Amino acid sequence: MSEKLFGTDGIRGTANIEPITAETALRLGRAAAYVFSTGGSGNPNPPRERHTIVLGRDTRLSGYMLESAIVAGITSLGVDVLLVGPLPTPGVAYITRSLRADAGMILSASHNPYEDNGIKFFRYDGYKLSHSVEASIERFVLLGTRRSIIHPTAAKIGRVVHVDDALIRYVEHAKRSFPHSYTLGNLRIALDCANGAAYKSSPNILRELGADLCVLHDAPNGININKDSGSTFPQAIQKFVLKTRAHVGITHDGDADRVLFCDEKGDLLDGDEIMAIVALDSLRKHLLVKKTLVATVMSNVGLDEAITRCGGRVIRTNVGDRYLMEEMLRNGLNIGGEQSGHLIFRDYTTTGDGIVSALQILRIMIESRKPLSELKRCLVKYPQVQRNLMVRKKPPISSLSHVQNLIEHARKVLKGRGRVLLRYSGTEPKIRLLIEGQDERQIAKMAKRITDALFAAIGTQDGQSQIPCSLT
């Protein structure tokens, strides 16, 4: 097993291969029970006689195996488990704080293929764990402690409770982020659930708000999550919008903590365009705290220009919603997001929430009486080239001398009117390249040279694993 379990978003990997095995899941359950029941997570609430952890999952086949192992681990240390079944990641965060649990856990690999799975944690208030708490859990799993020999008996063994109304609770919570006096009755909405955790919740929410709804990929079978569907395969929603003549298309990833949109013409909107629309709307209404939007280094520089023109500003963070949230909490800010469609509205949620984010765009469409194709014009994007390359190893990027030379040359050619970013994925065996500039052909050539060098140095032997260049 790896010496480090946690990546940028929990623990993730191929199911039934370390660290995503039943054996490690059991140890993680025990570790979580120990840390969360002994105050190691920083929970300021008074000690209680019995401690509880909420546990949810997405629709992957391996979720049943991991769920059983984690339940065994948690209950073996005398902590109760509140099972919520398939529910979006933000739903688990909400249920955790709604039920006053000590922590929450969800089994999901988000946008990854069904063969993968992962384990994410939430603290008592629905926010993700700090690095220090993750380190405590990791230490317990890898090294054990004297407390690892604890085995409560009789009535002190943990109990399992099925939270039968978890879906209803989450649906009502999400609906509260949409104005009570509004209705979606005049909108035909196309929705792609990615055969994932939102296959019930998102359709229920949109229908209960009055939408004329056309649903795609809402029949999970354990192995079809994210397959040719959802936000990682936006072609599906683009075709579906045109087929159904919908006013707007909404597409989730597997655990529905992110969302992308398609306008009525079948054109895709990414997270940058969504952020521009909602941030400018909030600026006009004086609702964007400190006139500041939080984005990652991957967002298009056009976003900064659009917000600055209207008197606001953009703060940049490292990639990952945890870094967005840390910056938002540090400065008391309320809106942030990623180009991938992972958006955080702290006025309503404690983590990225695909359907809550979608409702904010739908609200603006209703208030402005403008189609999405017109609203998105507020952002003029610089051409970008992005490449994602499967890798067989992850040496320090600084050690790849030929790659570094090509990057430095590209930066000199761009002369400050563009940028080059190269980073490893924190959740997959991939390296991600982004080049931004004013000349599409020029940056495409740069991307090819750098990607070829990366492939020769650390790329996989499977040529099919190289994802083609995409201009956004």
Topology:
Blueprint: E1 11-14, H1 22-37, E2 52-57, H2 62-75, E3 80-86, H3 89-98, E4 103-107, E5 116-123, H4 131-143, E6 160-162, H5 166-175, E7 188-192, H6 201-208, E8 212-216, H7 235-244, E9 248-252, E10 259-263, E11 268-269, H8 271-284, E12 292-296, H9 301-309, E13 313-317, H10 321-331, E14 335-337, E15 343-345, H11 354-368, H12 372-375, E16 384-390, H13 401-414, E17 419-424, E18 430-436, H14 440-458, E19 470-471
Parallel strand pairs: 2-3, 2-4, 3-6, 7-8, 7-9, 12-13, 12-14
Antiparallel strand pairs: 1-5, 4-5, 9-10, 10-11, 14-15, 16-18, 16-19, 17-18
Helix pairs in contact: 1-2, 1-4, 3-5, 5-6, 13-14
Describe the protein:
This protein is an alpha/beta fold. The chain folds into four domains: 11-163, Alpha-D-Glucose-1,6-Bisphosphate, Chain A, domain 3 (3-Layer(aba) Sandwich), CATH 3.40.120.10; 170-266, Alpha-D-Glucose-1,6-Bisphosphate, Chain A, domain 3, CATH 3.40.120.10; 269-378, Alpha-D-Glucose-1,6-Bisphosphate, subunit A, domain 3 (Alpha-D-Glucose-1,6-Bisphosphate, Chain A, domain 3); 384-471, TATA-Binding Protein. 35% of the residues lie in helices and 20% in strands. The protein is built from 14 helices and 19 strands. It has helices spanning 22-37, 62-75, 89-98, 131-143, 166-175, 201-208, 235-244, 271-284, 301-309, 321-331, 354-368, 372-375, 401-414, 440-458, and strands at 11-14, 52-57, 80-86, 103-107, 116-123, 160-162, 188-192, 212-216, 248-252, 259-263, 268-269, 292-296, 313-317, 335-337, 343-345, 384-390, 419-424, 430-436, 470-471. The strands form four sheets. A six-stranded mixed beta sheet has the order 1-5-4-2-3-6, with helices on both faces. Strands 8-7-9-10-11 form a five-stranded mixed beta sheet, with helices on both faces. Strand 4 and strand 5 form a beta hairpin. It is globular and about 70 Å long.
